[in-house]
Design a protein that fits this description.
By secondary structure, this protein is of the alpha/beta class. Helix content is 40%, strand content 17%. Strand 8, helix 6 and strand 9 form a beta-alpha-beta unit. Helix 10 packs across helix 13. 33% of the residues are buried.
Length: 368
């Protein structure tokens, strides 16, 4: 069989451990595989048991498993998914794997060792690296991968020493439109402060709501839902804020429109181990669409924000939070801000193409 024939016939499984609306970076892989005419299946867990992804190569395990439930029930659900997934992989006999998230890889041990150096390992978040056993298993998975990609350079501070490639929560297709967007300040009307994504970290976000609620200078929007949605809704129903709005889950097709209506992105999280090293989707969205953002202090995200002038770090506990945010927005150096967005996105572009090249080598490799 010619090498080109092998590449076309080779079939790859992309594995994820949850609903695909929590996996926006999936397109980094599917776009590349589609462009190279490579056959692949996306195998995931439809935990919400809502709308399934259309397409014969999207296969899901349908079992509802709420994010907020007792640990025993949640653990049993995870192992049911594991059993189903391994049985499915055994039947299909894939040539290569792309494993999205360290928890997905941990759950599949030792099965994935059958694919030694035949899988890409993608790490998106800090998880349980402080636990010695988890760290050891993760090191084995990393050492035996064809390549390991991470979404933040700061992850190197807690992961085992290795050669990492950087990938980002951003579609490569956006490159062509990189020069389209520029920031210009709103001259009048309320400043729209917008949260995009899963509703989490209520204790942190409620401080922001309290600081901006009923302040005639701002509108506050939350687009999305999550494990704490009910807590947010109960809180809002019990308070009479006239400028705080929850719109619920949105389709990815609507994301761009919602973002472009924002004047400031709310990208503020509580400063803790799991957020200290990560770069959220909103961080990239803000830089790409040239929308300033609020971030928390003491994190890698804050370091980049200050270096490239992408937003402002303010703690929600600050009694002058609203005034500082308003003064920041109305006094932004527009040219400096836009230049910083371009500079950061150029770094992202370079990382993306380096990772794309290692992916192409992975696709082209004949492991037989």
């Amino acid at each position: 069989m010619r090498k080109s024939d092998y590449i076309k016939e080779s079939r790859i499984a992309i594995l994820f451990i949850g609903d695909l609306f929590y996996c926006p970076y999936l397109s980094n892989y599917t776009e590349l595989l589609d462009n190279e005419s490579i056959k692949y299946d996306v195998i995931y867990w439809n935990r919400s048991c809502q709308k399934q992804v259309e397409g014969s190569n999207y296969i899901c395990f349908n079992k509802e498993s709420k994010l907020r439930q007792n640990k025993i029930k949640k653990t049993l659900d995870f192992f049911q998914y594991r059993k189903w997934l391994i049985n499915f992989l055994e039947k299909r006999k894939y040539d290569k794997l792309i494993i999205l998230s360290s928890i997905m890889a941990f759950l599949l041990m030792p099965y994935i060792m059958r694919y030694k150096h035949k899988y890409i390992f993608d790490i998106r978040d800090y998880s349980y690296e402080l636990f010695k056993l988890y760290y050891i298993i993760e090191k084995v998975i990393i050492d035996n991968s064809f390549a390991t990609v991470i979404s933040s350079k700061a992850f190197e501070s807690f992961l085992p020493k290795n050669r990492y490639y950087y990938t980002h929560n951003l579609s490569v297709k956006r490159d062509e439109k990189l020069l389209k967007y520029r920031f210009s300040k709103k001259d009048s009307g309320r400043i729209n402060v917008v949260w995009m994504g899963a509703l989490r970290y209520f204790k942190h976000q409620v401080k922001i709501i309290e600081k901006l609620g009923n302040d005639e200078r701002f509108n506050v929007y939350y687009h999305g839902e999550g494990a704490q949605s009910d807590i947010y809704f109960q809180y809002i129903r019990s308070h009479n804020y006239n400028n705080v709005f929850f719109t619920g889950r949105y389709d990815n097709e609507d994301k761009k429109e919602l973002i472009l209506k924002a004047d400031i992105l709310n990208n503020s999280y509580p400063t803790q181990y799991e957020t200290a090293y990560a770069l959220s989707n909103k961080f990239y969205d803000g830089a790409f669409y040239h929308i300033p953002q609020i971030v928390e202090g003491g994190t890698y995200k804050c370091t980049l924000t200050e270096k490239y002038y992408l937003g402002i770090a303010i703690e929600p506990d600050d009694p002058e939070f609203a005034d500082k945010l308003y003064n920041y927005y109305t006094s932004i150096d527009v040219d400096k801000f836009n230049r910083g967005c371009y500079q950061w996105m150029e770094i992202v572009r370079n990382h993306t193409y380096e990772t794309k090249n290692i992916m192409l080598k992975f696709i082209e490799s004949n492991f037989d």
